[in-house]
Design brief:
With 89 residues, this protein is mostly helical. The protein is built from 4 helices and no strands. Helix 3 packs antiparallel against helix 4.
Length: 89
């Protein structure tokens, strides 16, 4: 009778412990995959798409800078620096 009670309690408890251990291990593997660094080639493509302004945006920004320069808000030096910064990005 004692063996029956022992196995009746021990087997479900061991099964539950194995279940918890298995789920913890699987969550660890999933976290490892999710935190894996991005391929450098893909990363460069994503940065290029995000950081490069379109031609219309670029021409709009340069024309705004030109208006500021003509109105006297920007000096020639500041205008050149801002323009080269826009063109190099």
């Amino acid at each position: 009778m004692e063996k029956l009670i022992f196995f009746g309690l021990a087997i479900p408890i061991l099964g539950f412990v194995f279940y918890l251990g298995g789920t913890a291990i699987m969550k660890g593997f999933k976290a490892k995959v999710d935190n894996r660094p991005v391929n450098p080639e893909e990363k460069e493509e994503n940065e290029t798409q995000v950081s490069s302004p379109t031609a219309n945006d670029l021409s709009d920004e340069i024309s705004k800078l030109n208006e500021l320069h003509k109105s006297g808000v920007l000096t020639q030096e500041e205008f050149e620096k801002a323009k080269s910064k826009l063109l190099n990005n």
